[in-house]
Amino acid sequence: MNLTRTLFYFGFLITCSNAISQSNFVKVDSSKFVFDSKQVRFLGANATYLFQQVAYGKHFVIDEVFSDLKKLGVKVVRLAAHYESENFIDAAVIMRNPGEYNEQALRALDYVLMKAKEYNLKLIPILGNNWEHYGGIPQYINWANTKKIGPKEFTHDDFFTNEIIKSWYRQFINMLAERTNTFTFKKYKDNESIFAWELINEPRSSDRSGKIIFDWLNEMSFALKQIDANHLIGSGEEGLDISPNEYSSYEFLYNDRKDLFDGTFGVSFKSNSTIPTLDYTSIRLYPEFWGFTELSGINWINDHLRISMRAKKPLLVGEFG
Questions:
Q1: In angstroms, how far is CA 223 from the centroid of its own chain?
Q2: Which residue in 84, 198, 202, 238 is the catalytic one?
Q3: Is 118 in the active site?
Q4: pLDDT in tens, 267-320
Q5: What residues have CB less than 8 Å from 209, skipping those under 6 apart?
């Protein structure tokens, strides 16, 4: 993640507000988020750093952030629920080695979930990152190379295809879903403060067909559903694609950004929207950073909304700025 993207990393999620009850789980009905058979619309915010602050002893930050968000009418908060690193000094690192977890950091995440219930907020925990922020894919690849799990030097795309690396990720999401919160004594998979799981932030690959990421999202969402049938699952993608078909003209409306629609980034929003174990679709929107006009931004949302509605799934704008 470059500096510009880091500055925008804590953007808002989507549109207006309705109260979300903490007594049950949000579901999807066609292209709507629903609770008790009623459509749920909400405003959300990104605060990826929350569990980190608790791990560093700054519990007061959670009250400050949640109190401010509640005043703004925010109902859903998206946050990091992973941190992969070989730094044994950093108290916020969750996974120090594949399968080796730091209980202090996990207890910090427990605390954030407990406080979310207190403030009547729901959370979208992010389970991985394409970028190096909080370790992400670069750390998985570093482990694969230092542990010499294969005969070759591993690169970014191997995260999505190598069976050993995939097993590390599956083991992590299994551990987290099955974890019992040390404050509420409730398993994460049964925790009503979780709105949805996000598999990975902004997945990308060099596969211009989009199949590598499609297969990974299909496999991991299915694996997580087998463990946790209560919560929704999202991909965390940006809205990129392998073909301009069904999108507005990139020459006239998208700043001639052909790369957004020609497979350059190895992701197909259209294909991924058809995965049955992904409950909603996900995009990002950074008009100024992408050189979009206001009209471009509106069309970006409408184009992806149309594809999402065809797939009978709601659309979540997971970051904008």
A1: 16
A2: 202
A3: no
A4: 999 999 999 999 999 999 999 999 999 999 999 999 999 999 999 999 999 999
A5: 242, 263, 266, 268
Report if pTM > 0.85: yes
* Amino acid found at 74: V
> What pLDDT digit, counting tens, does each position of 170-188 carry?
999 999 999 999 999 999 9
Name residue, tokens 């190096």. 132
Question: What single-letter amino acid sits at 220?
Answer: M
Q: Which two tokens stand for residue 280?
A: 């909603």
Kindly give the pairing relationship between strand 281-285 and strand 27-29: unpaired
The residue behind tokens 């808002």 is 12
CA 58 and chain centroid, separation? 24
Which residues are CB-neighbours of 100 under 8 A, at least 6 positions away? none
The whole-angstrom separation of Cα 306 and Cα 321 is 22
Tokens 């993207």 -> residue: 5
Question: One of 84, 237, 238, 319 is an active-site residue; which one?
Answer: 319
Specify whether 251 is catalytic.
no
Report yes or no: 46 and 12 within 8 Å, Cβ to Cβ: yes
Q: Residue 179 phi/psi, 5° resolution? A: -65, 140
